[in-house]
Design a protein that fits this description.
The protein is an alpha+beta fold and 507 residues long. The chain has 10 helices and 27 strands. The strands form 8 sheets. Strands 12-13-9-11-10-14 form a 6-stranded antiparallel sheet. Strands 20-15-17-16-21 form a 5-stranded antiparallel sheet. Helix 7 packs across helix 10. One of its GO terms (molecular function) is RNA binding.
């Protein structure tokens, strides 16, 4: 088969039923017959720029070309854990055998290109620097119940939500929501402003707040600091509910809100006991275009919702390189997104491992940031485990060092409540942030150190005001992952151990 998918040859396409090797072209199958171009593009936009689209409506299929293979891997990895649903129908997303798309001038493909131009131009606006990481959200036409947890589920799709405050002002339900970074806030604003939380109502109006950070004293239904679970609850006022309703997907297609917060609830009326699908420690609403309030319980049970563990913090990691993976390696990498308690590489199946995080929120952060990333040449597959904890080997039973307890490790990044590290959680990137550099170590020393780990150093820059910190850009994201694992906590002398994390900016 040719490595180029051509729109004029669409009648010759045969379904690609296997998962191919990584490609920036994705094959989407089982689409409803009335799926629009905008809905297909919407499946990809939260992950990055969509550069081309080929619709095969007669076959209920489409090909989506992303801006890079890395972006495509993020998308496939995410949808391997979170079921993508279009118009109440689960769809299948996999890598295509094709490496690029070429489209013709047929009416179908012209519509696809027009939709792509319209949505991509809006998405490109999100590249501009965000004035703040705090958003002000107003919910208009609020005839259905909206809670803080509903907002958390919706906005967590676009980045790490640190804090939320909800309040009523001028008889309108409003919220202030702080992300870990401005880029996430910008993406959420571009893709959610003007969308409906419920069918035909609860419209989101989003703007940047003049505040740069939120100061929260209590964790309750009015305010919550997700980096400070130790805060007291205080005296929370009762939430105003404006009528029953069950949130469905946005009118913006393809967006599936996921909630890493383990006790998230929707404020559903008691008449409905619907358990959302997919194995995240919080709740994920499937993308259902119609209101569920008209469905009897027998109908909702046919939608395929399944029960999930309430707050599972144990991850099943598969597709590991059994020749190279170690418990320490997974501890360092996963430790970027939370405190790793225990790691167990399975004795008879060493390409699989169990990783126990400190809590379910951290487990979700690991899944959302590391699924699909390449480690030792193989893309990681990460899902929630059915186990609630990782068991240590019984005394006297040797497991060849495959199980390690890291619960008392001094290398935990998040053991201090409210740690600044919560604000510095970013996806893996080719640029690493280095800190705790002693005065005697110069640029060439650090370049040599990273070259010795097998990486290619493309650029280096000390922070202008603080030479204890620097940025180093390596040849690829995979090289950066390997270098972080090898060199985090490396002894630089003078009682300084190098701290390494992923950077949100490049040099």
């Amino acid at each position: 088969m040719s490595t180029t998918a051509n729109g004029s040859d669409s009648k010759k396409f045969k379904p690609e039923m296997r998962v191919g090797s990584p490609s920036r072209v994705l094959h989407i199958r089982r689409l409803p017959s009335d799926t629009t171009e905008t809905e297909v593009i919407g499946l990809g936009l939260p992950f990055g720029d969509v550069t081309n689209l080929l619709m095969l409506k007669a076959k209920n299929q489409a090909f989506l070309e992303m801006s890079s293979e890395e972006v495509a891997q993020h998308m496939v990895g995410y949808y391997s854990s979170v079921l993508p649903v279009v118009r109440n129908q689960p769809v299948h997303v996999q890598f295509s055998n094709h490496k690029e798309l070429k489209t013709d001038n047929s009416p179908n493909q012209e519509r696809a290109q027009a939709a792509l131009r319209a949505l991509s131009s809006a998405h490109m606006d999100s590249v501009a620097p965000a004035p703040s990481s705090v958003l002000r959200v107003v919910v208009e036409n609020m005839v259905c119940s909206v809670t803080m947890d509903t907002l958390y589920q919706v906005f967590s799709k676009f980045g790490t939500v640190l804090r939320i405050i909800v309040f009523t002002k001028n008889s309108q339900f409003q919220a202030l929501l702080q992300y870990a970074d401005g880029q996430s806030a910008q993406a959420a604003k571009v893709l959610l402003d003007g969308q409906n939380l419920y069918n035909g109502c609860c419209t989101l109006r989003i703007s940047f707040s003049k505040l740069t950070a939120l100061d929260i004293k209590f964790n309750n239904e009015r305010s919550r600091d997700f980096t400070r679970p130790d805060l007291p609850s205080g005296e929370a006022q009762a939430m105003e509910h404006h009528g029953p309703g069950i949130p469905t997907a946005f009118t913006s297609p393809g967006l599936i809100p996921a909630a890493p917060y383990p006790t998230a609830t929707h404020g559903f009326p008691h008449a409905f006991t619907i358990t959302p699908t997919v194995s995240y420690p919080g709740l994920t609403m499937p993308a259902l275009p119609g209101a569920l309030t008209s469905l009897p319980l027998t109908a909702t049970s046919r939608l395929g919702f399944t029960t999930i563990p309430a707050a599972n913090a144990v991850l099943l990691v598969s597709n590991l390189n059994p020749e190279m993976v170690t418990p320490h390696c997974l501890f360092i990498l996963f430790g970027v997104y939370g405190d790793v308690m225990r790691v167990k590489i399975l004795f008879n199946k060493k390409e699989n491992a169990l990783v126990q995080m400190a809590d379910a929120t951290q487990a979700q952060l690991v899944m959302s940031h590391l699924t699909g990333q390449r480690l030792h040449g193989k893309p990681l597959r990460i899902t929630l485990s059915k186990h609630s904890s990782v068991q240590l080997p019984r005394e006297g039973h040797e497991d060849q060092g495959l199980t390690k307890d890291f619960s008392c490790s001094p290398l935990h990044r998040f053991k201090k409540p409210g740690s600044k590290n919560y604000s510095n959680i970013f996806p893996p990137s080719a640029t690493l942030h280095l800190s705790n550099i002693p005065p005697s170590v110069v640029e060439d020393d650090l370049k040599r150190l990273f070259c010795s780990s097998g990486a290619v150093v493309k650029a280096f820059k000390f922070f202008q005001k603080d030479h204890k910190m620097a940025l180093i850009q390596l040849g690829s994201v995979e090289e950066a992952i390997e270098s972080l694992i090898q060199l985090h906590n490396h002894d630089l002398g003078e009682n300084h151990h190098l701290r390494v994390s992923f950077s949100k900016s490049s040099i």
